[in-house]
């Protein structure tokens, strides 16, 4: 365990790295030769010059609040930095049940995020070379390609299912719960078919709801995830609560990783930010889940509800604010639809984290959770 | 403060997620409720067979004896509920504290629920039309005509998604365990008290604890899981819920009642004789029940009836919950009362509609931590007025001008209909109407329940299928 002094030094070093990375990223996105049309255009409206006046991460507060609407609609190429204009470009979308979805361009970010994430996975439960099952949303989502890259990066092959979360949200909003059940069953049947087809799948991504449904269906059929050969799972989202984790580990898996042979790690992320990893989740710690962003590529802050430039004290509750700082994409201070508590840095991630992530209380009523 | 665990087939379960329920007036926490997710409901459902088997280890006679003891205990015992010993007074006060209902009304509902438990033999006798309960328990038997009759349970457990509005509605699921069917309950977020106290009383009375689960948690999540995991379920909700489950044989839906009083041509001129009945029908139980009258249809004197009702109901004030005279329940959800009043005001803006309680002071009374709506009466000159057939969770009634010959075509689905008429043809038409559930022929207040009658859907018919069986 790191001493206070070591932790403090690591935190300072991380902060310096973040400051330097911020200056470098801003310089890239706002320089006429490398920046993207959107930011170069926006630069004219700013009351400061990002090229000379952003000297640290804190200087990003000079930017106005990032508006969701900027991500809706085309031309999407306005987000492609000139410095990367000759690269093949992906577009990933979020939302889209009603209206125009938010979209972001990506070139290699999703691969980088998941290659980095791969380093956090224990080889014992995520054996190199093993095959994967991606039990999550398909379509214009980042996740499918990202998980597929993760599998490939670790020397495996990824199997996927069809799942349209936009249809799932419509079913929930219409109150067609029987159709929702039927659709969930349809997705689970695809997963069980893959698991039973001799593909030697050992690792998987699954959303909490689908992991739960898969385990219950396997139990119904007299088998279990462990018997199907699964040893490593990563999952994510605001539904990944301590209570759900406890139920899942203790009842659906049959105990701790040592006992059941299944290791599950939560993650928090989205199309804009990348992937925040969790501090190891243990029974002794009440299955508490704390996420840490992949700094300096992305930063998570917990900010006051009435002042988004002010972080809350450690342990305090606030809204989750994301900042993305890569050469492909620059998003200063995007307000997530979530809230949580600010967590202390620790040895592995010597910067702030967030725990207790849940839908932002002022938006919660309008948010459809439990999507897939 | 009391801590209520989730109950999983009798076993208390402490969750890592705990909701605090607060006193509607003081804001003080009253209970900590351990909430669970849908996965636990789904997983436990796989063991539902055991719940029924545990109940089948008792004979119907033993179960009935236990019910009677449970009724006494529920009404006046001190019971182990959660981590506390709960007296009958504690129970009424706690229920009032979180639902906003006056304490006296909560006490009245205790009597109602206890009556069902204590008189379960008579109630089952009525619901089964006198069937020997041993036939239900064994699955078949001779009814006495030399013919074998057989009943097949349609589920091991009834799932129920319960409301928060009034403890009185719990009477609907109370008889289930006596029919050797288990219960998986999602209590209302503001009213977990009755399910917990019933379960505690049943446990104390010797009914197997494995028969009952209680799952507090998010409505959509737990409710959805209960409805999809049990072959028979009961749910309470608004018009949207009714529509969603209409025609679904697995689900019995209890929604708004749109209960009504109809004055026939022959009795309309005698309306003053029935004023007490009308007031009681609108006002009893704080007007919160689906069996409270929400409309009065009359061929004549509508304006006078509305004025007379307003004179009686209009002055009623919102009193503190511990005042024995308190007759109105508070709205504890922020903004709810104001939103309802907004909807009523829009209906009152109609030129054919008159607000009869307008002269008795403001109806919306907003307090620091809650709000009240005082009784409201309006007169509609036509059944086409927007307020002609609305129902709200407080004493609110529309008096609607409508010729007798148009009444049955205009009233729409009606849970309780009190028809004041001696006209045999009209009575006969009322009998034939398929959109009326409970029919009171003559001056009987709409909330008056005869527990020896089937109410809001016969439970026996919902839980058991009458089928052919031949034995050699």
Automatic annotation (TrEMBL), chain A:
Protein name: AMP-dependent synthetase/ligase domain-containing protein
Organism listed in the record: Lacipirellula parvula
From TrEMBL, chain B:
Keyword Oxidoreductase: yes
Enzyme kind, highest EC tier: oxidoreductase
EC number: 1.2.1.3
Keywords, sorted A to Z: NAD, Oxidoreductase
Aldehyde dehydrogenase domain segment(s): 18-404
InterPro entries named among the record's database cross-references: Ald_DH/histidinol_DH, Ald_DH_C, Ald_DH_N, Aldehyde_DH_dom
Keyword Oxidoreductase: yes
GO molecular function: aldehyde dehydrogenase (NAD+) activity
Cross-referenced Pfam families: Aldedh
PANTHER family in the cross-refs: 2-AMINOMUCONIC SEMIALDEHYDE DEHYDROGENASE
UniProt similarity note: Belongs to the aldehyde dehydrogenase family.
Protein name according to UniProt: Aldehyde dehydrogenase
Organism of provenance: Lacipirellula parvula
């Amino acid at each position: 365990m790191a001493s206070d002094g070591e932790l403090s030094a690591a935190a300072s070093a991380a902060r310096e790295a973040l400051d330097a990375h911020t200056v470098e990223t801003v310089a890239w996105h706002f320089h006429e030769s490398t920046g993207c049309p959107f930011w170069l255009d926006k630069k004219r409206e700013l009351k400061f010059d990002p090229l000379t006046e952003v000297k640290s991460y804190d200087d990003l507060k000079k930017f106005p609040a990032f508006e969701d609407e900027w991500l809706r609609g085309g031309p999407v190429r306005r987000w492609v930095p000139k410095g990367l204009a000759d690269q093949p470009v992906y577009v990933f979308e979020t939302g889209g049940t009603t209206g125009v979805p938010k979209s972001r361009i990506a070139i290699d970010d999703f691969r980088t995020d998941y290659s980095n994430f791969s380093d956090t996975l224990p080889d014992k439960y995520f054996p190199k070379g093993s095959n994967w099952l991606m039990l999550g949303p398909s379509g214009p989502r980042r996740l499918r390609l990202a998980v597929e890259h993760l599998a490939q990066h670790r020397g495996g092959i990824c199997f996927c299912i069809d799942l349209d979360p936009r249809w799932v949200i419509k079913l929930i909003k219409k109150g067609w719960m029987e159709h929702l059940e039927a659709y969930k069953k349809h997705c689970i049947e695809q997963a069980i078919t893959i698991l039973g087809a001799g593909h030697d799948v050992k690792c998987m991504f699954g959303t909490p709801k689908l992991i739960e449904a898969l385990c219950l269906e396997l139990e119904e059929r007299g088998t279990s995830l462990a018997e199907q050969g699964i040893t490593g799972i990563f999952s994510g989202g605001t539904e990944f609560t301590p209570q759900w984790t406890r139920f899942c580990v203790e009842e659906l898996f049959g105990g701790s990783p040592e006992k059941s042979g299944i290791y599950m790690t939560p993650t928090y992320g989205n199309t804009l930010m990348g992937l925040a990893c969790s501090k190891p989740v243990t029974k002794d710690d009440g299955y508490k889940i704390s996420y840490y962003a992949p700094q300096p590529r992305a930063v998570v802050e917990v900010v006051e509800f009435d002042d988004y430039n002010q972080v809350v004290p450690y342990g305090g509750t606030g809204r989750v604010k994301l900042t993305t700082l890569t050469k492909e994409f620059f998003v200063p201070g995007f307000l997530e639809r979530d809230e949580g508590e600010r967590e202390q840095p620790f040895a592995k991630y010597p910067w702030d984290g967030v725990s207790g992530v849940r839908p932002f209380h002022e938006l919660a009523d309008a948010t459809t959770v439990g999507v897939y | 403060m009391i801590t209520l665990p989730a109950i999983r087939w009798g076993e208390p379960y402490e969750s890592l997620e705990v909701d605090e329920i607060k006193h509607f007036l003081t804001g003080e926490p009253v209970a900590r409720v351990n909430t669970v997710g849908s996965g636990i409901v789904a997983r436990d459902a796989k063991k539902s067979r055991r719940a029924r088997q545990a109940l089948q280890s008792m004979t119907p006679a033993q179960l009935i004896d236990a019910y009677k003891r449970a009724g006494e205990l529920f009404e006046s015992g001190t019971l182990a509920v959660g981590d506390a010993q709960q007296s009958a007074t504690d129970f009424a006060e706690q229920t009032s504290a979180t639902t906003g209902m006056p304490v006296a009304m909560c006490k009245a509902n205790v009597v109602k629920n206890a009556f069902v438990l204590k008189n379960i033999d008579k109630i089952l006798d009525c619901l089964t039309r006198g069937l020997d309960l041993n036939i239900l328990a064994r699955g078949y038997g001779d009814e006495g005509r030399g013919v074998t009759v057989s009943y097949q349970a349609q589920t091991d457990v009834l799932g129920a998604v319960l409301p928060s509005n009034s403890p009185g509605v719990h009477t609907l699921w109370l008889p289930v365990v006596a029919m050797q069917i288990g219960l998986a309950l999602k209590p209302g977020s503001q009213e977990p008290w009755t399910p917990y106290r019933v379960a505690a009383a049943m446990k104390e009375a010797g009914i197997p604890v494995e028969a009952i689960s209680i799952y507090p948690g998010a409505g959509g999540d737990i409710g959805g899981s209960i409805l999809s995991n049990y072959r028979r379920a009961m749910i309470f909700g608004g018009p949207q819920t009714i529509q969603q489950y209409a025609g679904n044989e697995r689900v019995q839906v209890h929604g708004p009642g749109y209960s009504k009083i109809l004055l026939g041509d022959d009795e309309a001129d005698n309306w003053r004789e029935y004023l007490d009945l009308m007031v009681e029908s609108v006002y009893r139980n704080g007007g919160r029940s689906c069996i409270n009258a929400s409309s009065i249809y009359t061929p004549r004197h509508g304006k006078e009836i509305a004025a007379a009702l307003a004179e009686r109901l209009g002055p009623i004030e919102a009193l503190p919950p511990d005042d024995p005279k308190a007759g109105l329940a508070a709205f504890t959800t922020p903004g709810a009362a104001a939103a309802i009043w907004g909807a009523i005001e829009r209906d009152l803006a109609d030129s054919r509609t008159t607000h009869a309680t307008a002269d008795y002071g403001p109806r919306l009374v907003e307090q620091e931590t809650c709000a009240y709506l005082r009784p409201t009466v309006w007169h509609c000159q036509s059944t086409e007025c927007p307020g002609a057939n609305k129902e709200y969770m407080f004493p609110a009634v529309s008096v609607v001008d409508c010729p007798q010959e148009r009444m049955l075509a205009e009233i729409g689905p009606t849970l309780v209909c009190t028809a004041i008429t001696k006209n045999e043809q009209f009575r006969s038409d009322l009998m034939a109407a398929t959109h009326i559930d409970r029919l009171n022929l003559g001056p009987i207040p709409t909330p008056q329940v005869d527990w020896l009658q089937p109410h809001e859907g016969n439970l026996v018919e919902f839980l058991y299928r009458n089928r052919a069986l031949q034995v050699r």
